[in-house]
Amino acid sequence: MATNKNEHLQKVLETHDINKVENIDKFIAKKNKVKEALNNKFSSEKASNSIDSGSYAKKTAINTKFDIDCCIPFLKKEKEDDNGFATLEEMFDSVYKYLRNEYTEEDDDIIKEDVRKQKVSIGLKFDIDGEDFQMDVVPGRERPKNSDYNSNNTDLSLHIHPPNRSKKEEDEGKIRIKTNIKKHVDLLAGSGRVHERKVAKLLKVWKTERKNKNGGKLIKSFMMELYTKEAFDNSDEIPIGLWEKVKMVMNHIIDNITENNLVDPVNSSNIVSDAMSDTAKSDTKRDMKKTIKEVDEDSDKIKEYFPINEDYNDDDNGSESKSSSASVLSTSKFG
Q: Domains plus CATH for the chain?
């Protein structure tokens, strides 16, 4: 009997629900502890309290691969008596040194070696009740001037850690990037973007499964979210059914990923697609074409490309889901 593609994808969404993770409440509590520690440590340098960021904030996270992140906005030091940081590198290194050398002394769930510099963030890996929890802290500095960060202006400059630059960024000597994390969170927010969030989550399931099976690098999650928004915004008529919506976005990616720049909607000078190698773009395009072709020819193939998370499958032989005691949270949460 042929697989009902839309019913299957709905089950994929249900079993990949982030709130089914048993320790999600402990992870959220840890995120909040880090935010509070940052707020206290940098009370005179911060432009505002730490804000939530990333896929959890955007409600596009899945439970097979996720982290829960935050961003701390800092003041720009322009005069000697200003609070804040004069350079982005100083800002980045100050947060890293605090988290590695001081915060780890206060928190038994993390050691120094599990604090690391990443491209624009500091990565933290906690051991919480025997389970790894990863969190990114993004330091950002207000722009353009001191005390300009407010409810009407949330633009930030991020430091790019040189060893983690893309080849193009390295060739251009790029060490900073303008962004707006609060606006990124809002891109797929609200009741009018429910279908976009569903598609973005399904594409993350697809990407995770492809990487698990084949390795290598594929499209970045943020790019998938941007392409999803583009595809929906540019469509004259949104198709009915989850599979047709996923296919619409995949076809949009296929048509654009190797041909056109993907521009950050909050910073037209930031070409988001430059962060991907040509190989990763080509591999993504090839794999998406293959997925569409095989699923359209044989509906059962959808189970291979978009697998159900059996750890949280309530229908598994009538047994109760492992997630029966999971904490369902509502947060206003970039990660």
A: 5-318 (1.10.1410.40)
Instruction: Residue count of the chain, please give it.
Output: 335
Q: What's the pLDDT tens digit per position in 15-72?
A: 999 999 888 999 999 999 999 999 999 999 999 999 999 898 999 999 987 778 999 9
Q: How many CB atoms lie within 10 A of CB 192?
A: 9
Phi, psi of 109 (to 5 degrees): -90, 0
Distance separating alpha carbons of residues 287 and 214, to the nearest angstrom: 10
Tokens of 82: 């200003």
The distance between the two most distant Cα atoms of the chain, rounded to a whole number of Å, is 73
Per the CB < 8 A criterion, the answer to whether 138 and 181 are in contact is yes
**Angle formed by the axes of helices 221-234 and 242-256, to 10°?**
110
- Reduced to 3 states, what is the DSSP secondary structure of residue 67? coil
The answer to whether 10 touches 303, Cβ cutoff 8 Å, is no
Number of Cβ within a 10 Å radius of residue 169? 17
Among all chains, which residue has been given the structure tokens 């509906």? 299
Prior bond of 144 cis (ω within 30°): yes
Residues near 106 by beta carbon (within 8 Å), at least 6 away in sequence: 37
pTM of structure: 0.87
Alpha carbon 223 to its chain's center: 10
State which amino acid sits at residue 108: D
CB 169 within 8 A of CB 162: no
Q: Which residues, in sequence order, are bridge partners of residue 139?
A: 72
Q: What is the DSSP string of 137-157?
A: EEEEEESSSTT--BTTB--EE
Give per-residue burial for 244-264: e unless 16+ CB within 10 Å, then b.
ebbbbbbebbbebbeeeebeb
Least confident of 62-71, 194-203, 321-330: 321-330
Q: Which H or E element spans position 270?
A: strand 267-271
Task: List, as one string, the DSSP characters of 159-201.
Answer: E--GGG--HHHHHHT--EEEE-HHHHHHTT-SGGGHHHHHHHH
Q: Specify whether the CB–CB gap between 29 and 310 falls below 8 A.
A: no
